[in-house]
Amino acid sequence: MTESVKKARRSMSRLERKNTLIAYSFLAPNFLGFAIFTLVPVVFSVFLSFVEWNGGPISNMKWVGLDNYASIFKIEKVIEKFSEGEFFYFFKRVDLGIALKNTMFYTLVTVPLTLICALALAIALNKAVKGAVAFRTIFFFPYVASMVAICVCWNFMLMKDGPINQLIQAIGIPFNKSWTADSTMAMWAIILVSVWRNMGYYMVIYLAALQGVPRELYEAATVDGAGKWQQFVNITVPQLQPTTFFASIMMIISCFKIFDVVAIMTEGGPGRSTKMLVYYIYDVAFMQNKYGMASAISMVLLAIVLIITIIQFRSEKKFAND
Amino acid sequence: MKKMLTLVLALMLALTVVGACAEGKQVLTVVTWDATTTPYLIAQEAAFEAKYPDVDLQYIDVASQDYAIKVGTMLSGGDASDVVMIKEARDIINWQAAGYAAPMNDFIAKDAYDVSGFVGTEVNYAVDGVQYALPFRSDFWVLFYNKDLFDAAGVAYPTNDMTWDQYAELAKQMTSDGVYGTHYHTWLSAVANWAVCDGVNTLADREYSDLAYFYNLYQGLEDAGACMAFNELKASGLHYSAAFANGNVAMMPMGYWYVSTLIGYINDGTCNFNWGITAVPHADGVAAGSSFGNLTGAMINEKSENKDLAWQYVAWLCGEEGAAATASTGARPAWVSENVAGEMASVAGFPSDEASKAALIPSYVGMEWPVVDKLSEIQTIVNEEHSLIMTREIDVDEGIEEMNERVAELFE
Amino acid sequence: MSQTAAKNQIRQDNPALQMIGKTALYIVLIAVAAFTLVPFVWMVSSSLKLDREVFAYPMKWIPETFRWENYILIWQKVPMLTYFRNTAFIALVVTFLQTLTSSFAAYAFAKLNFRGRDVLFLAYIATIAVPWQAYMLPQFIMMRSMGLYDTLWAMVVLQAFSAFGVFLMRQFYQGVPTELCEAARIDGLSEYGIWGRIMLPLSKAAIATLVIFTFVGTWNDYMGPMIYLTRDFNKTIQVGLRRFIQENSSDYHLIMAASLVSLLPVSVVFLCLQKYFIEGIATSGLKG
User: Fold this and answer.
1) Tell me: the pLDDT tens digits for C216-261?
2) What is the fold of C72-277?
């Protein structure tokens, strides 16, 4: 090995070290606050999922290993039923299974619906539309309003003879029941309110992202004779990719964590038809005072979201490398 | 923006300094809810400070619907407030188990404190013979009715001795265009808790077939249009206080606490009609005047640095003198004595007829929820199935079967 | 030029077709706007009624008598002014800190290479996924031992360093061509210089977004202030609003009035910042 190569390597690693230090200096202000006030308690809650704790002094904690997980999954009962041929016992009868099923259904419907509406609105308002300022503000309004007022209001809109039912009856659908009193429609009521509320939020994100798409790309495409739809598919969608990545992850996470709409509008009902994961966690933690078990449920939620995020992260990288 | 920030900062600082000024009195902090508007809390504070002028009683006001979560968190963090009020049965179960409640037996023994006035209700706050809290309010359910509506219809008022079937007939009779014969709030307690009035059943006995009669009775009334539909009530979130105050509801079974709310409404002109109370109807074979109720109490915080003062307050609040202050506002104290009953009936605005006065003395009061193991889980299950029955997603028998099955699973 | 291209050219040039397209767009926009606004109309109408009229059935869109005094009552019944001041303080400080520290950290995540970057970033995202209810208690115990309980600073430190802001800014920075940074580096600009002179000016829209979201988020937060702020002079609007819902009565007309009033400041913030969404950034000649 020659001297010069060694020297180059040493200087490389010195440069690397310097770069890392610079990077850390950028991170530090945010990371310190984040680590102390969020990361530490979060890591602690991972530990909590293995103990039994009723909230009292730390000395009340009792290490129980995987017991919390066994009891939220009702593992013995599920296996017993499974061997009896009842395969879906977990999703039909166990609180966690029902909450998982509900939350996933809610997320699967709400995320695409919201993002499509948001993107459509953003593209429509990105043009020189008259009154764009007013429209933008109106669409963002629902996100700004206080949740209690909103949910009380929507409950009233969705009543038996409320305006929404009158509207759908006018177009010939014979539905005549309060949405929140119906096991199927209660979920759709929550979805409706969520889309209504978040549409403007993600519209803003898309609007901001659209500002970053160089206009020259469209100009060049027009010269090449590409139509509006082709421009959308070949320029807008790929250019918005990092934003869509961000928006879909944030939306998935926030859907998995839905709480306030459920708490105010349906309280998880009727029965358990809108019982969602975080509402379940809330009940276990604060009504039953079982903080260990509540943490275990949160870990299930965390695991699901992490898997989804890592998959999306991978595909983002792949996309960026292409 | 900078200027505004400095201004805000300065204001905040000023406020903190003012807040910290001590007056040289002993400060007693009491955690409670709706402190600024609840009449009995205001009356209690005035009476207590009049008797103990060297004590400064300070309420820590917590939003009522988030009481359990907020106070549970405060206590878990080692909050040192002196006294904590108990809102629901599960509060004392959870907080006692976590070690937040100081045992009271030594104080009771030292002062030779007489608990006979609680007529046995205090055992609901005892675990293994150790007293962790004392009750100061004991609400039981009565039937409110709108005298003007009965007069207008020419129908005799409800009485203190009615069966549920007679009551249902009366409700249907009173129903006419724009008038509902009765009103049920959406709670389980308003519809089906009546099963515990017989002194045998409880909502934690893992057997719920005794609720069927009341669900069927309710559904009959709902079908007849004699009460507002559950689905609409739930969706609109209409509060029972407004429902009855609207003046188009003839009867309403509700907790005794509504008396003081209603008197307040009449006084400030929110509503304007004559009203009365009777005992709630009773099932066949159950004594007239049987009802159920719940307790509100106070515990001493284990972390309190002044437990003697805290005890002094709790003993006063729950005893004869505190009870008089509580009763003077129309609320029903847990301490029972002739003085207190007289005080309750003499509250300005309380109906003057004899039947209403007689309804103040129930023959039996069962507990809405008994203090038992896994209470909170049972409550969740029973309430979930309750909502399914009430929305008619499943029929009454199915719902009760589900209650039985799911509660049994808890104890496997 | 292909046939479709020619057709497109025709479509773009045809004024009649353009008119129809424009009209359709307006009809859709107005329909969506109406759908968005209906609940607010109901809120306004309810805020001018008596409490018992709010849920009267069948519903009345126009109150019998307009009770404008509700808008005075909300200031008299609870110390709304104090709540407003507290909320404004928290929202302003949090927004300032959040925007500054996030855009700083995001630059490192988006444009710098260092060991452990991806893992650290994943840790940021992971914490967003854990529901607050799960770690609220340990967090509370910690905050209390630091003496922050029942102070406005508790809300500041809890919300100012959220992972959300870092994530948002990182995604925007990723959209800025790396060639720009490299060119600046060759010109001798330090990393701090690149952040301050190139990234910040280019990410105005992103910063506006973050400011709006953070401001609205802290303004409307309920659970955090509910747990951490206890004494009345420390409470925020959202917590204060709940004082109109009590155990034995509820004043929904006042809730509606107070909610509408609390909507105003946030709407103003949005209106002021939304101009950054109009102009695109010219990045001509940088890519490719």
Assistant:
1) 999 988 889 998 998 889 999 988 888 888 877 778 889 889 999 9
2) MetI-like fold (1.10.3720)
Ramachandran assignment for B282, one of left (phi > 0), alpha (psi -120 to 50 degrees), beta (any other): beta
Contact C105 A26 (CB under 8 A): yes
Residue-wise pLDDT tens digits, B331-362: 889 988 777 777 787 888 888 888 888 888 88
Does position B21 have pLDDT exceeding 70, yes or no? no
Identify whether residues A75 and A150 lie together within a single domain: yes
B353 assigned to some structural domain: no
% pLDDT > 90, chain B: 55
Q: What percent of chain B has pLDDT over 70?
A: 94
Domain that holds residue B58: 26-138+293-345
B-chain CB neighbours of A260 within 8 Å are none
Helix (H), strand (E) at residue A263: none
Give DSSP secondary structure letters for A150-196.
Answer: HHHHHHHHTSTTSHHHHHHHHTT----S-GGGSTTHHHHHHHHHHHH
A-interface mutation test, from C133, C203, C220, most A Cβ less than 10 A away: C133
Of chain C, the end-to-end C-alpha distance in Å amounts to 24
Lookup result for tokens 């038809």: A273
SS3 content of chain A, % helix, strand, coil (to 5): 75, 0, 20
Interface test with A, best of B70, B76, B92 (most A CBs within 10 A): B76
Confidence of residue C190 (pLDDT cuts 50, 70, 90): confident
Cβ contact (<8 Å) for C280 and A210?
yes
pLDDT of the residue at A2 = 58
Asked if A86 and A190 sit in the same domain, the reply is: yes
C157 vs A contacts (CB less than 8 Å): 33, 37
Which residues constitute the domain of residue A163?
Answer: 67-321
Are the beta carbons of B98 and A56 separated by less than 8 Å?
yes
ipTM above 0.85, yes or no: no
* C36 contacts: CB under 8 Å, gap ≥ 6: A138, A139, A141, A142, A196, A199, A200
What integer best gives the mean pLDDT of chain B? 88
Report which residue type is found at A138: I
Contacts of A270 in chain B (CB under 8 A): 387-388, 390-391, 393
Q: CB-CB: which of C144, C230, C246 is closest to B34?
A: C246
Smallest CA–CA separation between A198 and chain B, in Å?
22
> What parts of chain A have a pLDDT lower than 50?
1
CA closest to C285 among chain A residues: A216
For B134, the enclosing helix (H) or strand (E) is strand B134-146
Q: Which residue of B has its CA nearest to A283?
A: B380
In a domain, A248, yes or no: yes
Neighbour subunits, C (≥3 Cβ pairs < 8 A)? A, B
Distance from C128 to chain A by nearest Cα, in Å?
7
Q: What average pLDDT does this structure show over B66-93? A: 91
A274 within some domain: yes
Spatial separation of the C-alpha atoms in residues C144 and C35, rounded to whole Å: 45
**Contact with chain B for residue A289, Cβ under 8 A:** yes
- Give the residue carrying structure tokens 């409706």: A192
Round to whole Å and give the CA distance between B244 and B273. Answer: 11
Q: Which residues contact B266 (CB under 8 A, 6 or more apart)?
A: B272, B349
Q: State whether A199 and A276 are in the same domain.
A: yes
> Which CATH number do you get for residue B341?
3.40.190.10
Count of Cβ atoms closer than 10 Å to residue C75 Cβ = 14
Residue of A nearest to C128 (CA): A253
pLDDT at residue C52, as a whole number: 73
Mind listing the pLDDT tens digit for each residue in B135-170?
999 889 999 999 999 999 999 999 999 999 999 999
- Split into its structural domains, chain B has a count of 2
